[in-house]
Amino acid sequence: MEKLLNAKKIILESNYLIALTGAGISAESGIPIFRGPNGLWRKYKPEELATPQAFARNPRLVWEWYAWRISIVLKAKPNPAHFALSELEKQGILKFLITQNVDDLHERAGTRNLVKLHGDILTVLCTNCGYRGRLKEVPDEIPPKCPECKYILRPGVVWFGESLPPRELNKAFEEAEKADAILVVGTSGVVMPAGAIPNIVKRNGGYVIEVNLSESAITPYADVFLKGKAGIILPKLMKLIRS
Ligand code: OAD
After folding, report:
1. Per DSSP, what are the bridge partners of residue 182?
2. Which of 90, 142, 190, 226 has CA atoms 20 to 30 A from the CA of 64?
3. Which residue, among 104, 102, 148, has the nearest Cα to 126 in the 3D structure?
């Protein structure tokens, strides 16, 4: 309770609170995380699936994996952690959210001011003609073809070895520089540059509040570490903030 009260105090005294989220916030919505005992990368080698080379070598295999993940995202619903963050934004307290997640659960929960640093799994791109589309269901044909030029479409996500979208990355760093507090939820903090964002806030004298099931790369410098499920902790924190 004392830790939750500390977190509440930091949040209410902040002038510019931002949030950084990772796969852990969507875990309670049924979307597998990447690392840890139940992580995606334990069952699939990332270099076999999430790289431009893998896609060039075997687009069907890569697309089968994405089709499976897309079907999970389409069925998933935002959980109380996503709703807590959108409420915090509506109250004018949370100014900006940076997510590493490629699902659309923050948007569906109502968060408006956000960037998606690693792309969007429901977007498809044609690297031949520049076509960009949005998926409402799992593509019938695997790999899906561009409706304009019939070239193979690719998922609109960032793969290992690729650069992050520059506009989103700049915005995320701009927001981090402005922030005097950051709420970090459900990320291992090991994938750069996203993992370095809480450190920017800390370096500038701001506070770091972390919510995670277990310790992460961010925990050693977190001012408050709230250990547990995001879907339980964030609604509790919101209740305290409302009271
Ligand atoms: P990870 O899978 O690396 O880490 C998920 C974190 O969430 C872990 O620290 C877990 O302890 C924590 N966690 C799990 N369930 C939770 C829950 N219910 N409540 C709170 N915390 C929970 O996922 P990310 O840090 O998001 O990038 O991974 C970063 C990037 O690595 C991903 O965006 C993806 C991957 O490679 C790309 O695809 C480019």
Report:
1. 18, 208
2. 190
3. 148
pLDDT, tens only, 88-131: 999 999 999 999 999 999 999 999 999 999 999 999 999 999 99
Q: How many residues would you count in the chain?
A: 243
Among the atoms of ligand 1, which is closest to the Cα of residue 188? 9
Instruction: Tell me the backbone φ, ψ of residue 19, rounded to 5 degrees.
Output: -130, 150
Q: Please tell me the pTM assigned to this model.
A: 0.95
* Ranges of each domain in the chain: 1-31+78-118+164-243, 37-75+120-157
For residue 243, pLDDT over 90 is answered with no
CATH H-level, domain 37-75+120-157: superfamily:
SIR2/SIRT2 'Small Domain' (3.30.1600.10)
* Phi and psi, residue 43, nearest 5°: -90, -25
**CATH architecture of the domain with range 1-31+78-118+164-243:** 3-Layer(aba) Sandwich (3.40)
Atom of ligand 1 nearest to the CA of 100: 33
Q: How far is the CA of 117 from the centre of ligand 1 (A)?
A: 14
Residues flanking ligand 1, CB < 6 Å: 22-24, 27-28, 33-36, 39, 50, 100, 118, 158, 186-188, 191, 211-214, 216, 229-230
Q: Kind and range of the H or E element at 146? A: none
- pLDDT tens for 28-49 read 999 988 877 667 666 777 667 8
